[in-house]
Amino acid sequence: MPTPSMEDYIEQIYLLITNKGYARVSDIAEALDVHPSSVTKMVQKLDRESYLHYERYRGLVLTSKGKKIGKRLVDRHDLLEKFLMIIGVDKENIYDDVEGIEHHLSWNSIDRIGDLVQYFEESTERIADLKLIQEKNEEETANQ
Ligand code: CO
């Protein structure tokens, strides 16, 4: 399994290739807010571990292993965003919170969160019920 830091790179490279058709070292550096030399180092590591091929002129190409894990990481990110949205987390916190937790949950927890998301999505009444509890708790907090 890739380390959390490797996961960040694979996730970003997968997103860049999906959205732009290619992933340049400079784009990855910008997306992850790191120095290009760190990107080059990590890309070489990912190449050695066969997540991608780094070719001087063609740039980065994900291997089928890299694509598979990349898709999984992007899906996991999207699921966690959906989860935080459903449980009522404020919009401005969602992206950063997901970036903070996504590497630290087991796939077992991710799958069970997936069930919970499904549970809420299957009926708007369930979401409304949860909202009622939240409103009550917020009110109590405000009155303390
Ligand atoms: Co992410």
Automatic annotation (TrEMBL):
DNA binding is strongly activated by Mn(2+). Mn(2+) 2 binds at residues 11, 77, 99, 102. Mn(2+) 1 binds at residues 8, 99, 102-103. InterPro entries: DtxR_MntR_Metal-Reg, Fe_dep_repressor, Fe_dep_repressor_sf, HTH_DTXR, HTH_tscrpt_reg_MntR, Iron_dep_repressor, WH-like_DNA-bd_sf, WH_DNA-bd_sf. Pfam families: Fe_dep_repr_C (PF02742), Fe_dep_repress (PF01325). It is found in: Cytoplasm. Keywords: Activator, Cytoplasm, DNA-binding, Manganese, Metal-binding, Repressor, Transcription, Transcription regulation. It comes from the Bacteria. Residues 1-63 form the HTH dtxR-type domain. Belongs to the DtxR/MntR family. PANTHER family: IRON (METAL) DEPENDENT REPRESSOR, DTXR FAMILY, TRANSCRIPTIONAL REGULATOR MNTR. Homodimer. Central regulator of manganese homeostasis. This is HTH-type transcriptional regulator MntR.
